[in-house]
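Following up on my earlier message about zinc ion. Here are the inputs again, as you asked, copied directly from the submission form:
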Amino acid sequence: MLKAVEEPRTRLENSVFGRGADALLDGKGKIRRDHLRRALRLIASADPVTRASLARSTGLTTATTSSLVNELIALGLVVSGEQAESTGGKPGTRVEMNRAFYAVCVVIVRAQSIETVLLDLSGARVLTRDSVHPGGVTPADVAAVTGEIVREFRDRVLAVCLQSPGVTDGSVVRESVLLGWKDVPLAELIAAEADVPVVILNDADGEALTEAAFDDVDGVQRLVLRMGEGIGAAVTIDGRVLPGATNRAGEIGHVAFGGRGAQIRCRCGGLGCIEAVASLTAVLGPDFHDELEPNAVRALLAAEGAGERMLLGAEAVAAALRILSGLTDPHEIVIAGRAPLLGEPFLAAVRAGFATNRPKGTASPPIRFAHDSDPALGPGRLVLGRVLGVSLLRPAGNPGAL
Ligand SMILES: [Zn+2]
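Thanks, got it. Here's what our run produced:
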C-alpha cells in the first residue's frame, strides 16, 4: 500500500513542475528544470546512483548535482537510500526514487465497466478498483468514479489519464460508437470533481504507448492493431503516438478492406468494415465483450463455427495490415487488445495472409502479439510525462524506456 504522506502535493504544484510554471520560468529556470529532469531519469534507471555518479554522468559539478538531488528530495520525488558499494574512495549514499510517495491515476473506460488504477512511480499497481455498469458507462459515471479516487488520495495523485474508446483530442471525447458518446467534455467533467491535470487517451493509442514502454532503443516505429469489441490502430514513432490532423489516425474500424467478408453488414450500417469481419464480437459472437474473463473467451472460441470465423477475421486483418504497413513502413506490427486470447492459430493465419500477395517493394516486418503487461502503464507514462517531463514508469522487471 501507499505510505502515509507527510506533505501535500501542493509542494510539487508550486515547483518548476507545476502547471503554469512554464510562463513563470526564465531561461535559467528552464535550464535548472532540464537538469532536474535529467537527474530524475538517471535516478529512475536500473543502475544505482549516487550524487557523485550523477555528477559524472551529467558532467555537472558535485555541488550542482547535490543541490538538484536536495531539491528532488524536498519535492518528495527522491529519497536518500542505503550506502552504495565503495569503488575505492569514500562510499556515497545511494539516491533512489521515492516510489510510494506519489501516484498517477489511470482510468480505463470500457463499454460496461470502469477500471480505476493507481500506479506508483515505479509503475507498480498499488490500487485497482472495478465498477460495473451493465446499462453502459455514462460520462457522469466516469467523472464520479474518478473524482472519488482522486479525492481519497488527493495528496498523492499527480495526474489522471483516462483511456476511452473513440476519437479524442485529449480533453473531449469527440465520438465513440462503442459508448454511444458524441462531443463529451470529459476532462472538464473530471476537473469539476478533482483538481488535477487530466488527459483523455484513445484505447488503441494507450495500448501502443504501453508497448512502447518496452523499447530500449530510440527511434522505433510501430504499428499496433487493437482488437476487441471494436478495432482500432495506432502508430507510434519513438514512443509518441501519431495523432493525425483531427486525432483520428488509426480509426480504421469502419474501413472496408475487401476480401471474403465484403458482404457482412456492420453495426454502423456499412458493408465489410474490418470491425464487422474481424472484431472479437464478429469472431466470437454477441456474447463476447471486452470485460470477459480469458477462460470465458476461450470457451467462446471453442464453439462451433468460431474457428472458421477466426480464419476469416485473420484474412481481413492481414489485408488491412498489408495496406497500413505499406503506408507506414513500421519496424514491427503488434496485435493487441483481447486478440492474444485467440492464440497462435490466429497469429499464424495473419502472418500467412500477410505474406501472401505482399505488394512488391513493401517490407515484411515481424508480426507478434502485444506483451502481456499492465495496460495502465502506457497511459500512466503519458500523463506522468506531461507533469514531470519524464515518463519514469517502467514495465516490471524490464529496464525499458524512460
Ligand atoms: Zn462499420
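One observation from looking it over: The chain is about 35% helix and 20% strand. Hope that helps, and feel free to reply on this thread.
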